[in-house]
Amino acid sequence: MHVIEAKGCRIPAVGLGTWQLGGRDCVRVVEQAIRLGYRHFDTAQLYGNEREVGEGVRASGIRREEVFVVTKVAPDNLAPRQLARSVRDSIGHLRIGEIDLLLLHWPNKGVPLKDTIEALCNVKRDGLARHIGVSNYTVALLDEADRLSEGRLVCNQFECHPFLDQSKVLGACRLHGMAPVAYSPIARGGARRDATLEAIGKKRGKSAAQISLRYLVQQGIAVIPRTSKVERLAENIALFDFELSGAEMAEIATLAKPDGRIVDWAWSPQWDR
Ligand SMILES: NC(=O)c1ccc[n+]([C@@H]2O[C@H](COP(=O)([O-])OP(=O)(O)OC[C@H]3O[C@@H](n4cnc5c(N)ncnc54)[C@H](OP(=O)(O)O)[C@@H]3O)[C@@H](O)[C@H]2O)c1
C-alpha cells in the first residue's frame, strides 16, 4: 500500500472522503471501498455520518488495525472541555476504539489557539487519538500551531487540486514535517471536464479524474476523493500503475487559476495567495 509518512504516522495515500454520504448508502460505500482496497476513511463531526462510517468498517470484517480512520473536531467544539467531550462522542459514534488521526476541522478565532492545541494534545495523551493534526490551516496558523504543540501535529488537510496553487501551504507542511492531505482533489468533479487532464489521460488509458489524483499523489500529497458511486471507487484508487512525466506535471501546474478555490466560507481564515 502507498502511504504518506509524517513523524511515525503512516497515512494511506488514497482515502475515501465521506462528506454528504449518509445512512445505508454510506455504510455500503465504506464496506465496498474496503473490499476494493481502501484503507483510509475521512469523516467529521460536522458530516453527521461517524456512526455509518464506523458501521461500514465493522461490517467489512477487516481487522481494526488495517484501517486508518480520520475524524475532525467541529469549529464550535474547540474550547478545551467541549473538545474533549466531543471527541468522546465521536468515539461513541464510530465504535472502532481509538481514532487514528484527529484533526481540528477549521480554525476558530473565538477560542485561543493555545487552549485548543493543549486540549488536542491532551486527547492524544489520554489515548483517544493515535495522531493529531489540523485542517484548513494557513502558513501563519501552521507556524503557530506547530510551535504550541511542540511539533506533535502530523497533518494539515486542505483544498488541493490542479486548479488552485497551494505551493505556500505545501511548503509550510514540508517545513514542519506534516503530511499534506488534499480535499476536493478532483475539484468536486470539475477535473473530469478539463481538456488538458482529459488529453493526458487519453494517452494513458486513464480518466481526467485519475490524472488529477495522480498529479497530487506523485507530489507526496494524500488524496481523499469522495464518490457515492460504487463503480467510481475502483477508478479513484487505480493511480499507481502509471507515472506522469516531468513535462506533464509542468503542464498540469499551469491549470491553477487565481479564482480556483472552491471551498470558502465566512469563517475561513485569510488564505495564502
Ligand atoms: N477539511 C475540510 O474542510 C473539507 C472540506 C471539503 C471536503 N473535505 C473532505 O474531502 C472529501 C473530498 O472532497 P469533496 O467531496 O469536496 O470533492 P471531490 O472528492 O473532489 O469531488 C467529489 C465529487 O466528484 C464526483 N466524482 C467522484 N469520483 C469521480 C470520478 N472518478 N469521475 C468523475 N466524478 C467523480 C462525485 O460525484 P459522485 O458521488 O456522483 O461520484 C462528487 O460529486 C470530502 O468528502 C470530505 O471528506 C474536507
Annotate the secondary structure layout.
Blueprint: E1 3-6, E2 9-12, E3 16-17, H1 23-36, E4 40-42, H2 50-60, E5 68-73, H3 80-94, E6 99-104, H4 113-125, E7 129-135, H5 139-148, E8 153-159, H6 167-175, E9 179-183, H7 195-204, H8 208-217, E10 222-223, H9 230-237, H10 246-253
Parallel strand pairs: 3-4, 4-5, 5-6, 6-7, 7-8, 8-9, 9-10
Antiparallel strand pairs: 1-2
**SS content category:** alpha/beta
Strand elements, count: 10
Described by its quaternary structure, the protein is single chain
Report the sheet with the most strands, covering strand number, pairing sense and barrel closure.
8 strands, parallel
Radius of gyration: 18 Å
Strand content: 15-25%
The structural domain count equals: 1
Can you name the CATH architecture? Alpha-Beta Barrel
* Strand/helix succession: EEEHEHEHEHEHEHEHHEHH
Count of helices?
10
Quick rundown:
The protein is an alpha/beta fold.
How is this structure best described in words?
This protein is α/β, with parallel strands linked by helices and 273 residues long. The chain has one domain: NADP-dependent oxidoreductase domain (TIM Barrel, Alpha-Beta Barrel). Helix content is 40%, strand content 17%. The protein has ten helices and ten strands. It has helices at residues 23-36, 50-60, 80-94, 113-125, 139-148, 167-175, 195-204, 208-217, 230-237, 246-253; strands at residues 3-6, 9-12, 16-17, 40-42, 68-73, 99-104, 129-135, 153-159, 179-183, 222-223. It has an eight-stranded parallel β-sheet. Strands 1-2 form a two-stranded antiparallel ribbon. The longest helix has 15 residues, at 80-94. The chain starts with a strand and ends in a 20-residue tail after the last helix. It binds NADP nicotinamide-adenine-dinucleotide phosphate (NAP). NADP nicotinamide-adenine-dinucleotide phosphate binds at residues 17-19, 42, 105, 135-136, 157, 183-189, 192, 207, 209, 224-229, 232, 235-236, 263.
